[in-house]
Design a protein that fits this description.
This protein has helices spanning about 35-45, 45-55, 75-90, 95-105, 110-155; strands at about 65, 70. The protein is mainly alpha-helical.
Length: about 160
């Protein structure tokens, strides 16, 4: 199997921190005040999930408007994109919260954050190897059935 990595073109230095992924945001920095429903639409997460992320400490502090409504920023969207990637790795929510706490604690937690991400990376590599093996089995079975189909066509059965 061939794995192709597709990367979006970005300007050098487009990342604003080491954990953010450049995303095409609808509003420029400084004008980025999103409601919870806008963030839900943009991320595909429900408003309930966004509130839960904030409640359990997975989201950093979200600013509020003068009426108490949450106001998310591009930085919040970048964090949510990163959390989405962590979810795809299968990382437990408790570990994601621990990672978020380390980020908030500051630079002195770099070593612990790195260790957590390296452990997660090893888990992902193991899952990829398992999926590669599974794909090989599927490809073999598909080839078998393709060969059987051609044999039936030749014999008229």
């Amino acid at each position: 199997m061939t794995v192709v990595r597709v990367a979006a073109e970005t300007e050098p230095g487009a990342l604003t921190s080491s954990c953010e992924v450049p995303e095409p945001y609808p509003r420029a920095d400084g004008q980025d005040q999103y409601t919870i429903s806008e963030v839900a639409d943009f991320t595909g997460l429900s408003a309930h999930t966004l509130r839960w992320y904030e409640r359990i400490g997975l989201m950093p502090h979200v600013d509020r408007s003068h009426t108490g409504q949450r106001r998310f920023t591009n930085r919040d969207l970048a964090w949510l994109a990163f959390v989405g990637k962590l979810r795809l790795t299968g990382m437990p929510v408790a570990d994601m919260v621990r990672y978020a706490e380390m980020v908030r604690a500051g630079d002195h937690t770099y070593a612990q954050r790195k260790a957590l991400l390296e452990a997660t990376r090893l888990d992902v590599l193991q899952r990829i190897a398992e999926l590669q093996d599974t794909l090989t089995v599927l490809d073999s079975k598909i080839s078998t059935y393709a060969g059987a189909g051609r044999a039936q066509e030749r014999t008229g059965v």
